[in-house]
Target: Laccase
Amino acid sequence: MLKINGAAKLSILSALTLFFSIAITAVPSASAKTHYHDFVVQATQVKRLCKTHNAITVNGQYPGPTLEVNNGDTLVVKVVNRAQYNVTIHWHGVRQMRTGWADGPEFVTQCPIRPGGSYTYRFTIDGQEGTLWWHAHSSWLRATVYGALIIYPREGSSYPFPKPKHETPILLGEWWDANPIDVVREATRTGGAPNISDAFTINGQPGDLYNCSTKDTVIVPIESGEMNLLRVINAALNQELFFTVANHKLTVVGADASYLKQFTTSVIMLGPGQTTDVLITGDQPAVRYYMASRAYQSAQGVPFDNTTTTAILEYKLAPCPAKGRGSAVKPLMPSLPAFNDTPTATAFSRSLRSPRKVPVPTHIDESLFFTVGLGLFNCPPNFKASRCQGPNGTRFTASMNNVSFVLPSSYSILQAYKQGISGVYTTDFPAKPPVQFNYTGNVSRSLWQPIRGTKVYKIKYGSRVQLVLQGTNIQTAENHPIHIHGYDFYIIAEGFGNFNPNTDPSKFNLVDPPMRNTVAVPVNGWAVIRFVADNPGKHPEKCQSYFHQLFIPKLLTRMIFQPAGAWIMHCHLDVHITWGLATVFLVEDGVGELQSIQPPPADLPAC
Ligand SMILES: [Cu+2]
Model:
């Protein structure tokens, strides 16, 4: 019997892939469109909670414009920076196959767009359907610089559920009654925790439970018998959120632009960066109902914004006196889980399943174990006490595998990598913690202080990666929403306490785990994710064999390549990324042009 080893198999596949890709590129899909947009980043007067602020917006809109595309389309977005801050835009969840220069995180894939500068992001969305979003990826600008990115099914195909009559993006945001850039700068100066926010928002509005807000509360109309697809996005900076609608069931159909096995729930939980698509049906008496969102706060003894944002689900036939904003008849208020209701958050995340069997990699080339958590730096000798306002005269920090990530400033990591510039980063990010300890127990103080560095982890083209993300109990245990750029991954298991390599693999779901771009690592617990390098196509459930993918022409366009480049992985709580809870996967190019990143665009900003 002919036996082909793994490497040979890979190279044969690479060659075949190359051949067929040339065929595909030569005949682009007739229906795929290119969408052109101008994003002008500018200071805009925005009044919330009785006070007007000069908020940074895109095109004067808060939240910013909603982008709508079909799977397979190309986006060309020219970003012009008319604000006083550096800015970049990240297209959260977009795979960026070969277009890593368009990913957006500052000093990782590009230098920031300086005030007065501009940069055009060009990329194609291929194999992803559902809800993503875009946001600034520079300092805390994403507090107001964000918007929805809606990906409809490929032209000619349809949803794997009945077509809803209406679709409504629900962007959950976080508002400071202050300039958020000042808030983070102050925290960076003092070393203490940043001020908590003053409101959460739905589509930019806090809603009826806040001062000076009632007249602008968002109203979502619904008709009896109609179905509405709510595309819920957690765009908050620092808070995991529960979301619910009074008296209405939510049928979950997708998350992070991947479809899910449908299930019904009364409440969903989203970490910052995550999206969830839910169907609601107008099957209740024709009156008005609040949809509401408030914190899931897993860290104990830490101040947080405990306010509740609301919008109104309003039946078109609701009696007139009860209609409109500020009406005397209040909408029905749902009950929300307690702030620390970890069992509800866990029950929700464990309900997510891919629609059918998916090709989870079973042979692993890179087995990684990263701790994620906080830390404290001792006060440096040359610092005044006013700069060490963390617990007991320390400064807050955060780390992965004891490395607190520092962004470079002279070149982006991708630029340094592709142009061979040395001294920008090192490739010694450890595959496992330098010291093993009882991660979720009472951690010795000697292990609370990480080292600082721009350390990246290099991955070979075609690697099959398993990554255990292990939360730590250093300073405060907390649920960390870990986001990887450039990839979707399967979440094959999660649990509490320390991951046990002997017993926990028996809990791995290698059949129908959900595919996401952001995993909420349970508080004082762990999550295991897997992603494939050589076949990361988003429609593996449609066809799992290379043979079929190669010989069924319709599927050819779904042959997607390893997105070579520099991909940041970070906690999506901005306070934690500020403190260094991040690292970068440096993925080498594969064989030939089509397995390599494109050349940098001519207008790529310089540092
Ligand atoms: Cu975090």
